[in-house]
Amino acid sequence: MNIFALSSGRGPCGIAIIRMSGPDTLSICKLISKEKKIKENEINLCKFFDPKNGTIIDPEALILWFPKPNSFTGDDLAEFHVHGSNAIISYFLKVLSSQKNCRMAEPGEFTKLAFQNNKIDLLKAESIGDLIHSETELQRKQAVNLVNGHASKYYDDLRSKLIKSLSFIEAKIDFAEDDLPENVLKEAHKSIKSIHSDISKIINDNKVGEKIRDGFRVSIVGETNVGKSSLLNLLSKRDAAIVSDEAGTTRDVIETYLNLDGYPVILADTAGIREAKNDIEKKGISLALSKFKEADLNIVVIDNSNKKISDKISSMINKDSIVLLNKSDVQAKENHKFDVDAVLASVKDNKNIDKLINLIKKKLNKKFSSNNSALITRERHRVKLNECLKEIDKFLKKDQNKDLELAAEDLRMATRHLGSIVGKVDVEEILGSIFKDFCIGK
């Protein structure tokens, strides 16, 4: 079967790229271009025709032809570059669909083929999706590192060490009557303990990889009418929340996604903290307190013109918070002092908001910095690493003199869990969940 899809965005645009992969790709290229010879790995300038009636689809187009196995998918692959009008795109796709054994590709099917043909591993397949969906510089850098295979190499090295240690254990089982050097088994145990330590460090990473991929959660909290919704609107550069002089306007949690100078942030505006006037406001305040507890960082907004701060708000100020002393246009001097980071600002006049942004970046960078070579970017990786760690724990707790065969089975399971991260074992059951979020044509 041959698959095809529009790989670039919909028109109108200057150029549209349509991708095709399958055993009949070259013959279809010749059929629709009327070219007798298509040069491989080169740009072929041509015209595209409808084979049924000879109608010109595009008078000036390009074909890039990549024969297997040296293509992205590992099968024969072609890219058709046409003018990006919706009319040309629709006509071209219609012509391809009318060819024998041709169908529209499913989401992520080109990348799935690449994995199945051993062109890429699972980690790289996932990271290609992350690279496509990256919106901030931090996300782009993380995805590029994964695409370059840094994490894959790290996990492969750990797995190789486990397999080597397992081979020593199995040698002891198979040749029990022979005298194996005592230091061989000691070195195997030492290596396994080292792997256990390395995996533990990866898992205890404050979930920095997932935070970069999905966004850091930052909540805006404070009393009513201190400027929380105005701050949300200012940072998001749109009227995301209703702003009113009436206290208690915000009842629900309003979230907006921000690219904060390269940092992906999910910013939440919450209901003002005070004694609730009714059940709806009580529910809103409860949600605000939940968001405060769940947040990676809280911005506690305080009206600097007020001389008193409620005990409830004071209790919310901690090392995971930044205090924003708002309304400096009304009161220019700090009325309050804190032991945590604080910014005297005016949301109304956009004063010192740049300082707030820099402070947010600084605290997120400090809190979620990691020296790990392999950052966990998906829950699937974390689950497999935890399962691997459990099997190694079981191995280390066993009496090696009595239960050596059972201990070896623990190590075998550990290598399977570790290998499944990059796709070294049967992973058919997880392929669908990985590739379903890809765009068509990738």
Question: How would you describe this protein?
Answer:
The chain has 442 residues and is an alpha/beta fold. The chain folds into three domains: 2-105, Probable tRNA modification gtpase trme, domain 1 (Gyrase A, domain 2); 128-205 and 375-435, tRNA modification GTPase MnmE domain 2 (Four Helix Bundle (Hemerythrin (Met), subunit A), Up-down Bundle); 215-368, Rossmann fold, CATH 3.40.50. It has 15 helices and twelve strands. Strand 10, helix 11 (311-315) and strand 11 form a beta-alpha-beta unit. It is flat and about 85 Å long. Mean pLDDT is 85; it is low at 426-434.
What would you report as the Rg, rounded to the nearest angstrom?
29 Å
Q: From the 3D structure, determine the CATH topology of the largest domain.
A: Rossmann fold
Spatial order of the strands in the main sheet?
3-4-5-2-1-6
- What fraction strand? 15-25%
Mean pLDDT across residues: 85
**Broad shape:** flat
CATH architectural designation of the largest domain:
3-Layer(aba) Sandwich
How many domains comprise the coordinates?
Answer: 3
Percent range of helical residues: 40-55%
Q: State the end-to-end distance.
A: 17 Å
Order of helices and strands: EEHEEEHEHHHHHHEHEEHEHEEHHHH
CATH superfamily of the largest domain, please? Answer: P-loop containing nucleotide triphosphate hydrolases
Oligomer: single chain
Number of DSSP E strands: 12
Q: What does the largest sheet look like?
A: 6 strands, mixed
For the record, the CATH class of the largest domain is Alpha Beta
